[in-house]
Amino acid sequence: MSRTEQIKPAPLDVHASPRPLSGDIAVPGDKSISHRALMFAGLAQGTTRIVGLLEGEDVLRTADAMRALGADIRREGRDWVVDGRGIGSLDEPADVLDMGNSGTAARLLCGILASHDMTAVMTGDGSLRKRPMRRVTGPLAECGATFLTRSGDRLPLAVRGAAQARPISYRLPVASAQVKSALLLAGLNASGLTRIEEPVATRDHTENMLRHFGVPVDVTPLEGGGCAISVQGPARLAARDVIVPGDPSSAAFPIAAALLVPGSSILLRGVGLNPLRTGLLQTLREMGADLRLENERVEGGEPVGDLRVTAGTLTAVDVPPERAPSMIDEYPVLAVVCAAANGRSRLRGLAELRVKESDRLSATAALLEANGVSVTIEGDDLLVSGCGGPPPGGGSVATHMDHRLAMSAVVMGLAARQPVHVDDLGFVDTSFPGFVRLMNGLGAGIGA
Ligand SMILES: O=C(O)C1=C[C@@H](OP(=O)(O)O)[C@@H](O)[C@H](O)C1
Ligand SMILES: C=C(OP(=O)(O)O)C(=O)O
């Protein structure tokens, strides 16, 4: 049983915020960048200092796994310091690698293991064991690794990494930064050019951070759209310090709450603004949200800024499917915002939501329905009939071991007319430790 499953469910009734939200906060570090910082630092030669690492459950699993592969990882004050092992010099893990709730940790690690001459076994919690793994194990087998998976597609899995990995050339069938990153990571220890074609752009933190650690990454536009990303192996990573920006996917929750609780105005400092992550901000602006960016700057190679959010009236939105990768984790909370808007919103092309920590498409629909909001799933689209103000609320929400559903349900509770019962807030620590404390610092009165 993994750590997250040992925690007793933490149910909570969330009441409407007793006052407008106000104040000035910084959300925790970006989860995607934090996983990569630990992995790349562990693969590098030398010592890396990481500032602003997310200390969420998912990232701590990556730290444990990289330690099991021989990296020395420790906390020094508020920073994390990693003495890397170097590509090709990793230890064979002495025990099963437990990736907890984290798809990113599991899939990216498969990439590292596939091109190292060792045997490893990997598992995860009850949510992660339901998620598809063939999307990485299939193409990674091309480099010479052998994977044994439960039912051909699920954790637990065993991998026998290739002794002399071959480079992979692959066109992504789904828009997934995890699959892209796993294949690029395998390519670092393969002899020759690894080339990944990406028809639709996904978050490019792997490419950015590889360059930061001194590995050339070529990105060439493809005729007909998308691009090809290549790395030449074997590569050497040189340790470099990393600054992790605030996670825009975590910022989504206080942003949504501030838009919906009347009279609110908050400032979020140091939010990551990588253009492949800002689909939610674009969508909220289309709904009429008052979002103002201040102090835009580049920190640690990623654009960041401070974001002023002011409550106001919102109108329905039609979100095109090609925007999904730039806001894939934000749809549950966007649906809650749409529930309070004027008119019927259509969120298109959400097939990938079905294979997240839960089936987020049906679970988001259930969250809204339980709280008196009319919602329909048509194919891969979610249609939400906005209430033109506070939704009725009064429902009970099943979070299915899914942190984003839990936080979306809290936002619904803060904005709704009747309290919302959330069955388990425990998984919030996956990506946003201190979420309730931070929201209460803005005046939300959760659990008061
Ligand atoms: O690469 C990453 O760090 C992530 C990619 C996305 O998953 P997919 O690649 O499966 O879309 C996202 O949902 C996840 O939270 C983090
Ligand atoms: C989908 C998510 O993460 P992962 O795939 O890493 O579990 C998420 O954080 O919403």
TrEMBL record:
GO terms for MF: 3-phosphoshikimate 1-carboxyvinyltransferase activity
Keywords attached to this entry: Amino-acid biosynthesis, Aromatic amino acid biosynthesis, Cytoplasm, Transferase
BP-aspect Gene Ontology terms: amino acid biosynthetic process; aromatic amino acid family biosynthetic process; chorismate biosynthetic process
Region entry Disordered, spans: 1-21
UniProt-annotated binding residues for 3-phosphoshikimate: K31, S32, R36, S176, Q178, D329, K356
PANTHER family reported in the protein's UniProt record: AROM/DEHYDROQUINATE SYNTHASE, PENTAFUNCTIONAL AROM POLYPEPTIDE
Function: Catalyzes the transfer of the enolpyruvyl moiety of phosphoenolpyruvate (PEP) to the 5-hydroxyl of shikimate-3-phosphate (S3P) to produce enolpyruvyl shikimate-3-phosphate and inorganic phosphate.
Protein's name in the database: 3-phosphoshikimate 1-carboxyvinyltransferase
